[in-house]
Specification:
alpha+beta; elongated; eight-stranded antiparallel β-sheet; about 500 residues; about 20% helix; six-stranded mixed β-sheet
Length: about 500
């Protein structure tokens, strides 16, 4: 027991000696490490800042480091043109002393240098503006001096901000026609083409009281989409509250009288105590309409004349029947015209490929046939009213029918009709006084309806604008028979033409 305790004490003492020795060695090593940097710091050489001067060539890139300051104000650059050598000389001086060698440039080099310098200065100014959070307007703010302007508009600043784009297109179109009948100058036709496309929006303020707004677009579908407005707003204690010029509105709160919109003119608002006066002098650029919807369908009342309701379907047989139409209907339900149409044939332009015997004939129709003097529109003396003739429609009412059968018998040949009437031009011309139709088609009774007392016909199908309608009819009045035109059963053999009423 005693010897074991002695060995344990000896081992413990030995361990303590080793631990103390290790601590002492660490301290010595730490002292050496910490002392080395101080020795290096004291003995290492300090770095030297070397500044490099520029060569003085204008287009050389300058160092942008903030440590390199700009040139002082006494250093100036002067450009002189040498006409003898056609060169530009750039002098750089300190006062009157040339501190750099002059630089010589050709005109082309100088233009390139000026262009690059201007572009560099422009972008530098834009970048500096963007960094500051400000973009300069196309039109800068304008300061107007004087107290009068300040009192009227509330401030001395005028600020106009335009936005948009403008596009102009110029062009020339040259067309050439190889026509030997034309001269060389007329074969080439140049035309100038000019188009513009403007989208502009201008907003601005004049002082604190006046505002400006303009919106213009050449591609706008409606005129009211382009708006222009100038507004002046007064202060709370002023009589003149508001003045608007341009596109104005007059809204009303009541339902009895509705307000007006899309107005262009002048509007003022004034206040006298508790009384407010609004005045508008304008013209209305739009219109309002009311639509009634009932049962899911839109209802729009309108008025239309009867003769326009079914266009090109109803025709009077003569001007006389049109004149007596109203008088004949005064005693309805009895028609008091005294007329009864006994026979009628209706002919129109044949647009079908069917040609049937008896239903197709060559015809010549005349506007003034069987008309009296009040309704004769041609000025040919031999075609005028027969003295003492009847006032009712009849072939003998004027001399036209008689002259056609005697002096102008060539009208029976459809190919000679135009030549026969050419000497009478312009007093008597085709398309106005007469029409000729080859192989005209006669309508059957199911294709039209005739009113035998009032003297008009109604077609089942509307007449086209390029079709001609001609008739021949026979009627009785006061026991006497009257005839207008020629029937296909009168013995006039085809291909001779029939003379009809247009």
């Amino acid at each position: 027991m005693g010897s074991g305790k002695v060995y344990r004490d000896i081992l413990t003492g030995f361990c303590l000696i080793l631990f103390v020795s290790f601590i002492i060695s660490l301290r010595e090593a730490g002292g050496q490490i910490s002392s080395r940097p101080s020795a290096l710091q004291d003995t290492a050489p300090r770095p030297i800042l070397k500044l490099q001067d520029v060569s003085g060539i204008p287009w050389e890139t300058r160092n942008k480091n903030p440590l390199f300051l700009n040139n002082p104000s006494n250093i100036t650059s002067t450009v002189i043109y040498d006409p003898e050598k056609n060169e530009y000389i750039i002098y750089q001086k300190v006062g009157s002393f040339d501190y750099r060698t002059p630089v010589r440039m050709s005109p082309e080099e100088f233009r390139k240098y000026e262009f690059e310098r201007a572009m560099r200065e422009y972008w530098e100014s834009r970048i500096s503006g963007d960094v500051a959070g400000f973009r300069s307007n196309l039109i800068p703010q304008i300061q107007v001096g004087g107290e009068t302007f300040d009192k009227i508009f509330g401030s001395n600043v005028i600020n106009i901000i335009p936005q948009g784009s403008a596009e102009l297109i110029f062009g020339i179109n040259i067309s050439r026609t190889e026509n030997p009948t034309l001269s060389e100058k007329l074969r080439t036709i140049p035309t100038f083409d000019f188009k513009e496309k403007i989208q502009m929006n201008v907003t601005g303020t004049i002082g604190d009281k006046m505002e400006l707004g303009v919106n213009y677009n050449t591609d706008a579908m409606f005129e009211f989409e382009n708006r222009t407005k100038l507004q002046y707003s007064g202060k709370e204690d002023e009589i003149l509250k508001k003045v608007e010029a341009g596109d104005v509105t007059l809204p009303l709160t009541g339902t009895l009288i509705t307000g007006s919109y899309s107005l262009f003119g002048l509007k003022t608002e004034m206040q006298f105590g508790k009384l407010t006066v609004t005045t508008v002098l304008s013209q209305q650029k739009g219109e309002s309409s009311v639509i009634q919807v009932e049962g899911g369908a839109q209802q729009t009342p309108f008025e239309i004349f009867v003769d326009n309701y079914e266009a090109n379907r109803h025709f009077f047989l003569s001007q006389y029947f049109r004149d007596i139409y109203d008088d004949a209907l005064k005693t309805l339900p009895v028609v008091s015209s005294g007329i009864n149409i006994e026979r009628i044939e209706v002919w129109i332009t044949n647009k079908t490929s069917r040609f049937e015997e008896g239903s197709n004939r060559n015809i010549v129709a005349f506007m003034d046939l069987a008309e009296n003097g009040n309704h004769i529109f041609n000025n040919i003396p031999e075609f005028q009213e027969t003295p003492g003739a009847t006032i009712f429609p009849d072939n003998s009412a004027n001399n036209l029918y008689e002259q056609l059968n005697s002096g102008y018998s060539g009208v029976r040949n459809v190919d000679q009709v135009t030549n026969v009437f050419d000497p009478l031009y312009p007093g008597f011309q085709i398309g106005r006084d007469y029409e000729k139709i080859e192989n005209a088609r006669k309508l059957n009774d199911r294709e039209y309806m005739v009113n035998r007392q009032l003297g008009y016909i109604s077609l089942n199908s509307a007449l086209n604008t390029d079709e001609v309608l001609a008739v021949a009819f026979e009627y009785t009045l006061n026991g006497k028979v009257y005839k207008v035109g020629e029937f296909s059963t009168d013995g006039i053999v085809a291909p001779q033409t029939l003379l009809l009423k247009l």
